TrEMBL record:
Transmembrane segments: 20-42, 54-75, 87-106, 112-134, 146-169, 175-195, 258-277, 297-315, 322-341, 347-368, 380-400, 412-431
Organism, scientific name: Prauserella salsuginis
Membrane topology: Multi-pass membrane protein
Swiss-Prot/TrEMBL keywords: Membrane, Transmembrane, Transmembrane helix
Protein's UniProt name: MFS transporter
Gene3D superfamilies for this protein: MFS general substrate transporter like domains
Source organism superkingdom: Bacteria
UniProt xrefs under Pfam families: MFS_1
Length: 453
């Protein structure tokens, strides 16, 4: 029966092909980390060439996030209708096209439009790659698999910054976009070879030759094939893209959906405040420009370890509980951060630790969300939550700048955004026990939302 196959993947050991699929997802997130932050890497050079002021550069920095929000909201539902793998391939094509065309853009307006296009593809990739990683990891390692995706994002951002310095110095800012576009394009054959279609999608949507495709996945992962298709599911998400959105807010899933939307909005707002403003605020608080940039770099380095650590902890304890601890710890560290500036070493260590925990908060939400939805609406649920989060990401840097202009001190801003993480922790405590990602729980990607209310 199909239930046995799904249960075997959930409870059995991880086959090497499952780890390969997760590794491909991590690579996609590395590319996303590079592609998303490429505008930050090249901002000064772009401003010089096009004669931009601070406000115009800010619009360029936000353009990619606007595209990501649109991609998560508009493209992700098609993954539940036509398949995760096809949408990832289409999204890779869109992102690579946007990056390659950006390398020959002739004006700031043209570059901004191409950043929206690139973000559109990245939004589709992020929603699907996290869904695939969750669906093909066993229950024990699901939290780690999705958290590793966030580690890939931080790795891509960190390596991208190093590569950008070298490429800009040798070839100019356009070479950074060219490199990102070519690398994204080369990811397409890796997906074709290393990432099979989602088993949950095949079981719920029943495309042509569904049994053959399911058995191909089963054999690839070292599992026995099915003799026949299981009974057709009557669950949600089978009647179209619009129905997927309606299902998210139906009586069965409304509570969890609204909690996740709130959590994503708040956490992404806090995350992008920290990553966008910390270098500037450190200078405002008395450090040099170089020291401020160093503090910002340490945030990304800390994030590499934070997401991985959360995944390891989630393999032993409830993911929700681990995430709540991360959120509260992040809030406490933000409140105390500027007090450490009396010692440069303490300030840098504090920056790295904040990066560790704040990136872990984002990774934890990505890992928790697939457990709330069944296979029929999972990509829609994950993509929509990410899209809502991107709205917070777009708004928070602007709100922080407005408050700073109104006379708020850096310490006041860190206290305010620390409260944002506390509010998120409080919201997540409202999730019911079936959704918290407890390792020993019987829930799976295929049925984690069956008891939702």
């Amino acid at each position: 029966m199909s239930h046995d196959l799904r249960a075997d993947l959930d409870g059995g050991p991880m086959h090497r092909s499952q780890w390969v699929a997760v590794a491909v997802c991590v690579l996609l997130n590395m590319l996303d980390g590079f592609d998303v932050l490429v505008m930050a890497f090249t901002g000064e050079s772009v401003s010089t060439e096009f004669g931009l002021n601070g406000g115009q550069l800010g619009l360029l920095l936000s353009a990619g996030l606007v595209g990501m929000a649109a991609g998560s909201l508009l493209l992700a539902p098609f993954a539940d209708r036509f398949g995760r793998r096809p949408l990832i391939l289409v999204s890779l094509g869109i992102a690579s096209l946007g990056m390659l065309l950006a390398s020959v853009s002739g004006s700031a307006i043209e570059l901004g439009l191409l950043r929206v296009l690139t973000g559109l593809g990245i939004g589709g990739i992020l929603a699907c790659s996290n869904t695939i990683a969750a669906e093909y990891a066993s229950r024990r390692w699901r939290g780690l698999a999705v958290s590793l995706n966030s580690t890939g994002y931080a790795l891509g951002a960190t390596l991208g910054g190093v590569l950008a310095v070298v490429l800009i110095g040798e070839f100019g800012w356009r070479s950074v976009f060219l490199f990102g576009g070519v690398a994204t394009l080369f990811a397409i054959p890796l997906v074709l070879v290393g990432m099979p279609e989602s088993l949950d999608f095949l079981l719920s949507r029943r495309p042509n030759r569904a049994l053959d495709k399911i058995n191909r996945v089963a054999r690839r992962f070292g599992r026995a094939p099915l003799e026949e298709l299981p009974p057709v599911s009557t669950g949600p998400g089978r009647t179209g893209v619009a129905a997927g959105f309606r299902t998210l807010l139906g009586p069965r899933l409304r509570r969890g959906t609204l909690i996740l939307w709130t959590a994503f909005f708040l956490v992404m707002a806090g995350f992008y405040f920290v990553t966008s403003w910390t270098p500037t605020l450190l200078v405002e608080a008395g450090l040099s420009a170089t020291q401020g940039l160093t503090g910002g770099t340490l945030l990304n380095l800390g994030g590499i370890f934070g997401a991985t650590a959360l995944g390891v902890l989630a393999a032993r304890w409830s993911l929700r509980n681990v995430l709540v601890v991360y959120l509260v710890t992040t809030a406490a560290m933000l409140a105390l951060f500027l007090l450490a500036l009396g010692s440069l070493a303490a300030a840098f260590a504090g920056g790295a630790l904040i990066g560790l925990f704040v990136n872990g908060c984002v990774a934890g939400l990505y890992a928790l969300t697939p457990n709330v939805y069944d296979g029929g609406v999972r990509a829609t649920g994950v993509g929509t939550a990410i899209g809502i989060g991107r709205i917070g990401a777009i708004l928070s840097p602007t709100i922080a700048g407005t408050l700073l202009d109104a006379g708020w001190t850096p310490h006041h801003l860190y206290l305010a955004f620390g409260a944002v993480f506390v509010l998120t922790a409080a919201a997540l405590t409202l999730l019911r026990g079936e959704r918290t990602g407890t390792p020993a729980a019987a829930s799976s990607p295929a049925g984690a939302s069956s008891t939702a209310g």
